[in-house]
Amino acid sequence: MQVPKIAWITVNHKCNLRCRWCYQRELKGKGTTMDKEMAKGIVNLLAGFQPRTIVLIGGEPTVWNHYFTLARHIAGKGLRTTVVSNGLTFANYKFVEKSVRAGITNVTISVKGFSPQGYEAGCGYSGGYEVVKRAIANLSRTPIKTMISITVSYDIVERWKEITAFLKEFPKGFYSFSFEKPVILADGTVAMDDRMMPGKIASWIQDVMYPSLAQSGIDFKAEFVFPHCQFPQSFIDEVEKSNHVFGGCLLLKSNGVVFDPAGNVLPCNHFVGFPLGKYGVDFKTSEEFLMWRESQGDFYKKTMSAPCEECGKCNRWYKCGAGCRLWWLYRGTPELIKTETASV
Ligand code: SF4
Ligand code: SF4
Question: Which regions form coiled coils (predicted)?
């Protein structure tokens, strides 16, 4: 098992938006907030591993009371801080300047819609579109490295044409595209848009999304956590060659760690209520964390192995990894595997 190379700290489950697809809606405002001392303690623990960056996520981390204090604490440990935000707060230039002074090195702005109407449809706030554009412009005037992140939900699929105008407005941005996936809540309910199942959007990805991004000339990466058999091998080869692919399932690599606001370690941040262990109970120091993590070997062994017999026999398994494990929890082989293109 590897030591964490990247760490996500979920500082709150509160947000200043109510996006239609986000699990925050399911929490109905009951979202929790991380205590400042716990956040500092987790950073101290992580500093022992010198991760590439500590990523502050939420909810919305910029509305967390201790945002600046923690950023200064992370910088004091010589580590980089990445903030993943809906961007609204960065429309205030004074907030941006204070973030620079606090040592924030990277911001990922998650853009939720690409017209006032798109923003209204996704988040119920048409004004958000202009606000987020102001935030991107503000950040571009600072040393903070900014990435524009787009989670492709079905709303975005339906309004894909609007993205073209946005890309023209910010052609120099660095973009990351990921896809909406299920979220499992503490009571076992799943927040999931069935229309985003791999078999339902694979042809759109291949015929519309990738070609239009490639033609736009922007610098981008797109997450590719789909069962590869949903696509022809020639398409996968082309995408890989283009160097536009990032990431992979965290559960397969086991080189990252995600904390929730109560200090629980989650398998990934889509498992909102399924802790594997807890800061202050199962471990407190870097050494204790490593020992605890070793004891979780069975869990990781399971998530790192093939989820079905077909994948176990498939020549594409090594590169493919069968996609997001959450689909496998709720759907099975008939829906996720396309046997005619699997290499079994
Ligand atoms: S199970 Fe893997 S691919 Fe799915 S959301 Fe979690 S980390 Fe991402
Ligand atoms: S059968 Fe499994 S390993 Fe093979 S391409 Fe499909 S999902 Fe990937």
Answer: none
Smallest CA separation from ligand 1 atom 4, residue: 324
Pairwise CA distance, residues 36 & 157, whole Å? 39
So what's the pLDDT on residue 30?
62
Structure tokens at 12: 């709150």
In the chain, where are the structural domains located?
A: 6-305
Pocket of ligand 2 contains residue 249 by CB under 6 Å: no
> What's the one-letter identity of residue 99?
S
Average pLDDT rounded to a whole number, residues 294-314? 88
Q: Which residues have C-beta within 8 Å of that of residue 77, sequence separation ≥ 6?
A: 43, 44, 47
User: How far are the Cα atoms of 3, 33, 259, 275, 277 from residue 262, in angstroms, in the given order?
Assistant: 22, 8, 8, 10, 11
Q: Say which CATH class 6-305 falls into.
A: alpha beta
Q: How far is ligand 1, taken at its centre, from the CA of residue 20, in Å? A: 20
Q: Name the pLDDT band for 26 (thresholds 50, 70, 90).
A: low
- The mean pLDDT of 8-36, rounded to a whole number, is 80
Categorize the per-residue pLDDT at 252 as very low, low, confident or very high, splitting at 50, 70 and 90.
Answer: confident
Q: Among candidates 60, 275, 58, 112, which has minimal Cα distance to 184?
A: 275
The more confidently predicted of residues 85 and 273 is 85
Q: Between vectors from CA 119 to CA 98 and to CA 223, what angle results, nearest 5°?
A: 80
Q: Does residue 225 line the site of ligand 1, with CB under 6 A?
A: yes
pLDDT at 27 over 90: no
Kindly give the interhelix angle for 67-76 and 36-47, rounded to the nearest 10 degrees.
20
Most confident of 242-246, 269-273, 276-280: 276-280
Find out whether 109 and 137 touch, Cβ atoms under 8 Å. Answer: no
Q: What share of the chain is helix, strand, coil (3-state, %, to 5)?
A: 45, 20, 40
Distance 152 CA to ligand 1 centre (A): 15
Are the C-beta atoms of residues 118 and 129 closer than 8 Å to each other? yes
Q: What is the mean pLDDT of residues 42-62?
A: 95
Owner of token pair 């979220």:
183
**Is it true that the peptide bond before 59 is cis, omega within 30 degrees of 0?**
yes
Place of tokens 């759109």: 204
